[in-house]
């Protein structure tokens, strides 16, 4: 699957706009009840975690939600982790569909534009990097 997002910097605040996803697959290729969770990691503090509303029954959910992440100096060595989850029907369990992460310090670079479609990576890879989907010219 893929996730479309943009990250903007306003002073010492990261503004994350989660737009939409496409090609999300649940178990047995069913549609997903998906949501996106974001946090600055590593972080023992749960207050920094934010999530979108759950979009039911869609392989291509549209979220269009904005999230603010104030950045402290000690956060510059951390990563902004974006995870996409499928909430299991009739259960409180969720399964990880995929994730990606961005170095906080690199996001604060003024001319670095993060915007567009990104691949959802497996958990281990996604915790260390992000992969932009190449735009067709």
From TrEMBL:
Gene3D superfamilies: C2 domain. One of its GO terms (cellular component) is plasma membrane. PROSITE patterns: C2 (PS50004). It comes from the Eukaryota. InterPro entries: C2_dom (IPR000008), C2_domain_sf (IPR035892). Residues 1-118 form the C2 domain. Pfam families: C2. This is Regulator of G-protein signaling 3. It comes from Struthio camelus australis.
